[in-house]
Amino acid sequence: MPSPSPGRRPRRLMRRVALSLPGLLLAAAAHAAPAAGQCYADLAATRNFTLGLPRHAQPTPDGRAVLFLRSGPRDTTLHLWRFDPATGTETELARPTGTESLSVEEKARRERARMSLTGITDFTLSDDGQTALVSQGDRLMQIGVTTGKVSDVPGRGWIAPRLSPDGTHVAVVRDNDVHVVTLASGHTVRLTHGGSETLTRGLAEFAAAEELARPDGLWWSPDGQTILYEEADSSGVEKHYITDPQHPATQPVEFRYPRAGTANAHIRLGLVARDGGPTRWVQWDSTAFPYLARAVWPKGRGPLTLVVLNRAQTEERVLRVDPATGQTTTLLTERDPAWINISPSGDGRGRSLPRWLPDGNGFLWAAERNGHWQLELRHADGTLDHAVTPAGLPFVSLDDIDPEAATVTVTANPDRTRTAIYRLPLQGGTPVLLTPEAGLHGATFADSGHTRFIDSLSGADGSAVTTLRDSAGHVLATVPTVAETPTLVPHIEYTRAGTRDMDAMIIRPADFKPGQRYPVVLSVYAGPGYKEVLDAPRLSLESQCMANHGFIVVSLDGRGTPGRDHDWERATKNNLIDLPLQDQIDGLTALGKRYPELDLDHVGVHGWSFGGYFTAMATIRRPDVFKAGVAGAPPADFGDYDTAYTERYLGTPQDDPEGYRVSNVLTYAQSLSRPLLIMHGLTDDNVYFENTMKMTQAFITAGRPYNLLLLPGTHMLTDPVLRAHVDDAREAFLAATLKAPAPTATN
Length: 747
Description:
Helices cover 16% and strands 34% of the residues. It is globular, with a radius of gyration of 26 Å.
């Protein structure tokens, strides 16, 4: 999906431009506080003060150690660490060595995963917790968790590795085929042959990795004897080429990009023995259900299970697979006339729903029942037994099943802006709160350990802390951090706005003076899949930096955004802009009536990706409200965005041309009358630069002035100098065009 921010989950100006961008930067600099640039520079250099925090922390099955990745406070190179909670000591298990070499395929895979850090970017533990497999670029290492012994896995060019459950083998992809390496001997077996740029084995295709939250294309059987792999044939998918203007002698890179209404990759699943042999193909109606959303091969007696969707994403089936024959049986069918949201993917380490009970007599499943997510226990044949989570506590993710205690641990929403972790009986009952601290919590358990878990908290008090807790939620230890303390403190007021009771967030300057009026900046996403207003102030440091330079920054969650209820999110079906635009304006208007410090005569708007799309629409269509906008990487024409995302909300261009017309920035381009700055990376392979090119051409044709800042790079802005420049340019543009960079007194 279009990402909400270049930092988080811009040519010469055309005719009739009143003021050039360099002029804007100079004009704004005259009014900016002396530390304006330093604030953004610090945020960029520290990735919003997240560098140095523990990442992917995971307890060992016995709960006696925690493994995690961590970089320095101002570098992006991750190392693998072991933390002993009993003594409070940490040990570096592995550090990156040599030069990182990434293939085109691995770069694309990381872009899909929004992975921008370097070094040791991932690790996997064996079931006994004694062996860790770590990845650095295209090389692999195995680490003895208790011994600290480091051994290189023979060979280079490996991507997408998956460690066998017993820690003795690794399934991995090279040259678009699946291989298995025996770790003790280094012996390698190539399981598939004939892979090419358009026929890949063991990798998730674009739609799954980008839009379905499925990064995997390889799965081990619980006994480690068989591998399930995806084969993706993208030969029928449109060719797109990306050229790097900084290196004109380099050939363009070809991508197979499934644009809305065009062909997707054709996928199928194969089962092959670890030591090689013929492939048994899994059989389901992939013509009617072409999207593979999840594949789960559980430990215990539960079966290999798939979750598949039709292309319109209005019907979803849970399939039981017989590995011996590849035959499938439908266990459960879900339907929604608008679209189906895929069941949450658990803790992000492959523990997806459905989750089978160890005895195989049933499985846990989640669906949006009665308007909200709930966790359900279903019989082995798919029929409903009962709801596990109560109706008043919307389910977020399943974190653990403890079969001996007959309990589950879940993350849920105590309110619309927070998450918390609860334990409750498998048979249903009163949830027990394990994490009383307000904010956003995320739990990680070991696969076979139920007594201790990691809690990653972005706190309502502005903290960011990773703790080891026991089964009752008591904090046993805090995983060490080397992150810098933020140099600015968020001044956020959370409230509700308008007749629709929208979640709203108001960020005032640190030196806010009652009785003065401030220009307002709407920091916006306003689209599917992302909620702006969350009680986690660390997510709003960029907005606080902007506010500290003479603005009040506002964010709102209107119709079309998640986290409220089924109908609220699906209100924008077949029209992605009209209701969100009206809601943002209604919310601003309501807040302006309540808070006289909001100068609604001077309102600007900015956002990235879908937020950039919204910004362009708002600036063009409602110049009475928005006096200027800064649109980052906007998908201007959703006919040029990908199938799995776009068709979920708009259908295909062939089926609903009107929906695409009303949702297209180009439809309204001739009406641009306010200053608009567009920023876009020239090598963006998510929202292709053709979107901005089409938009600027429409402005030229209509004789409309615009501003353009071209960026080297992709959809993510990972270079700190570049990101700080983008932040400075955004603020400078808004300060100059809103004509009120300094607050004015009220009457």
